[in-house]
User: What shape does this take?
Amino acid sequence: MGSKFSHRRKHRQKSHSKSHAEGTVSPILQGNSLVPTEKHQLVESNYDLESLCDSIREEHAFAFDTEFIGEDSFYAHTCLIQVATKHGVTLIDPFLVDDLTPLYELICSTDIITIVHAGLQDFEPVIRLHGDSPKNIFDTQIASGFIGLPWPLSLTKTIGTILNHNVGGHFTFSQWDARPLTKRQLHYAADDVRYLIALHDYLQTKLCVLQREDWLKEECQKFSNSETFEFNTFQVVKKICGTKVPKTKELKRIQTLAVLRNTIAKEMNLPPKDVYPNECIWYLAKNNVSNANQMSNIRGFPKHIAVQFGERIISCLGDADSIEPVRLRKPKNIESEPLMRQELDGAWSLFNAFCVGQQMAPSLVSNRQTFTDWYLGLREDVDVSSSPLSHNWRATVITDFKSMLKDQCKLTFSFDDCLMVNNASL
Assistant: This one.
């Protein structure tokens, strides 16, 4: 069980209290044929779910979202499922519907569009429990970045920007596993899918004009890849290290401890952070600890974990030298030189302006580190084929910017209601 004193738990309890307090709900947008205005329906039986899925199949597209609690278990616990078409919103209670196969089949169908907003976490149970991968996913958060809105943009702000409607606050961290759910909880849960059909229609039109439908499909392929939802050693180690670059021996120990933590967490059905926190991983990587008693005295290290798994952790540390460590990015010495820092700052700013001028969200195209490595590679005339910026839609986006850096074209900027970038061949 997750710590009831954790920040996330406190946040959830506070939000849950608000959801049970007296108050009004935000009005539903009127006058848009793609926004259902009727009260949501409830599905609380397998039979009703099958009927719902039959009706969705005739629409060939539906909005999908889930409310879950992830701080108490290894896998997030799905507490409510929301779906919508232009005809209505339906809330599915997974505590009463014990066979979600019909819904999962829709999500895994190539003939039906599943519309989500920042939907990555919502699909993990589909692959794990259904044994198939989501297909034909349209993520409105990603699509918004492809038409020039900031990325990532919350659903509330996306609705406000595109549909000019304020849906008010949400209770994302509410106690969704409590029953009965309040009218305010149900209303806001319904709003999470109510507007997605209308957003999809708007975004699809914009993508078509910009000829970026294939880019979105390409980016949404990650939802169909099971590896997306698996433990990623590199990403976890990178998060633990942050901006630090540990010595090779320490890095191996950090990596070993991270992998073991995930294994123990799965065995105990706990979130990895509840096994032992990142701070303790750093301590164990830098200090010699030879027994469980020493481990239990480390600040922040759970004593019951030290008692139950201390020997296993110490044994694992002893084997750390034999593993191949992940490769973390280490800044080049040239990056710290004043003139180069100034050049990199200028190039990064220009790159951001270039993306905005093409109606692209810069942060969707690249982060600063990836851009820096790519830019320095071009500057030093070395191979950059391994860079994400050299592949697929990203390579297309930056074609003109790359040509400018190689003195093959000139870019000019203009402003008429929005920033625009133009290419003039040399």
Observations:
- Confidence is low (pLDDT under 50) at residues 1-5.
- The longest strand covers residues 61-69.
- Residues 248-268 form the longest helix (21 residues).
- The beta strands are 41-43, 61-69, 77-85, 88-92, 113-116, 137-139, 409-415, 419-425.
